[in-house]
Design a protein that fits this description.
The protein is α/β, with parallel strands linked by helices and 418 residues long. It is built from 16 helices and 16 strands. The protein folds into two domains: 112 residues, Roll (Urease, subunit C, domain 1), CATH 2.30.40.10; 289 residues, TIM Barrel. 56% of the residues are buried. Bound molecules: zinc ion.
């Protein structure tokens, strides 16, 4: 049978074939590796995955990629990013080195609030140009699906401006870009003393307008002691649900105020950060099927040690995903490869678990697992070719880009050839 493309002779083909549900426990350590593997691709979809000799017997193609001595795996799914901003905040990175905390910086007018000022002032085109460059770098590091959040506008007009930038990225870039509304990222300065009024605007103006314009699939919130309380979060998330948004949360990043428990209660698809989550929080999430998305790059960049308890979560059968949290403040990291290194070193995840968390479980965290996240028949041909002898080399060779070729829907969208 004639196909559009064959990728053949992969030393290790990490298919991640397995359960259709989010992978939990020992399933996370299973990559379903085919040695000397091949993939046949037709119309952007995977139509066969097998040993190279079997594929080459059944299929032929004028276009073939020889992956001898290389690793072939699914594209990374980065389910938590903030790539739309007007100005980077490297000055805060240096302030942190000199001893200022994230909360200190935020309360002195830096942090998210400074990003808000610049995003409000920026034009749509300025924001788009910066975001386009950000996402191209993310793609060059092997990510083929991202979630992208608003949340640096915090007014109806500027949040819509950000979401329209995300919409344009989704139209113009070859990868899947999943939009999330994060109007509850902070309280804007003008409502610092009148938080109730900002929540009213969020619920009565922003959510209905964004739902009407169909600009976001998810509604997210920053539930933390210094921003949105559990009660305020419940109120906003339940309103968002009524408008048809699916939910995700920034929960228990710094203090265990009950964010994970709330994620379980409101049926969030994913709760993210979770550095301070209690055992009860882990159990509540497991019971309601919330995915734990861990963001070790942020803890690393903040110079903290409060990494999420990935080992306990995996032991308790909570599905774990990994994401970059790429943003201009607390984590300017666009590489899932580096996140995998941190997950292994700082959270003691095995290399296989970290790869599962960065591909198929990330896809589940975006409800995209039927389309991407593993190399299985019928899925999009979202594939990476890595110039390395074994998948175990991926976190070991850190600080470098190990991805040689990025394919999305069967098309080469990026090549890093030395
Ligand atoms: Zn975030």
């Amino acid at each position: 049978m004639k196909v559009d493309l064959i990728i053949k002779n992969a030393k290790e083909l990490l298919s991640l074939k397995g359960s259709a549900k989010p992978r939990v426990g020992s399933e996370m350590d299973e990559l379903s590796i085919i040695e000397n593997g091949a993939i046949a691709i037709l119309n952007g979809k995977i139509i066969a995955v097998d040993f190279a000799e079997n594929i080459l017997q059944k299929y032929n193609s004028a276009k073939q990629i020889d992956a001898s001595n290389k690793v072939v795996m699914p594209g990374f799914v980065d389910s938590h990013t903030h790539p739309i901003f007007a100005k980077t905040r490297e000055n805060e990175f240096e302030m942190r080195i000199k001893g200022k905390s994230y909360v200190d910086i935020s309360q002195s007018g830096g942090g998210i609030r400074s990003s808000i000022k610049f995003v409000r002032e920026a034009t749509f085109d300025q924001l788009y140009e910066i975001a386009l460059k950000n996402v191209k770098k993310i793609i060059s590091n092997g990510t083929t699906t991202i979630e992208a959040k608003s949340g640096y506008g915090l007014s109806t007009e500027s949040e819509i401006k950000m979401l329209k930038v995300i919409q344009k990225l989704s139209t113009n870039l070859p990868i899947d870009v999943i939009p999330t509304f994060l109007g509850a990222h902070e309280f804007p300065t003008e409502f610092k003393e009148n938080r109730i009024e900002y929540i009213r605007i969020l619920k009565e103006e922003m959510l209905p307008k964004i739902a009407e314009l169909n600009l976001a699939k998810y509604c997210d919130i920053f539930t933390e002691a210094h921003v949105y309380t559990v009660e305020q979060s419940r109120d906003i998330l339940q309103t968002a649900k009524k408008f048809g948004f699916k939910l995700r949360m920034h929960a228990d990043e710094i203090e265990p105020i009950g964010g994970a428990e709330l994620a379980a209660e409101v049926g969030a698809i994913s709760a993210d950060h979770l550095g301070a989550t209690s055992n009860d929080g882990i159990e509540a999430m497991r019971k309601s099927g919330v995915i734990a998305t861990l963001l070790p790059g942020t803890i690393f960049s903040l110079g903290m040690q409060s990494y999420a308890r990935a080992r306990d979560m995996i032991a308790k059968n909570l599905p774990v995903a990994l994401a970059t949290d790429f943003n201009p403040g607390s984590c300017n990291c666009d590489s899932m490869q580096f996140v995998i290194t941190l997950a292994c070193l700082q959270m003691k995840m095995t290399v296989a678990e970290a790869i599962t968390a960065s591909t198929i479980n990330g896809a589940h965290a975006l409800q995209m697992a039927e389309k991407t996240g593993s190399l299985e028949i019928g899925k999009q041909a979202d594939i990476l070719i890595l110039d390395m002898p074994s998948y175990r080399y991926l976190p070991y060779h850190f600080g470098s880009n190990n991805v040689e070729t990025v394919l999305k829907n069967g098309q080469i969208i990026w090549e890093n050839k030395i």
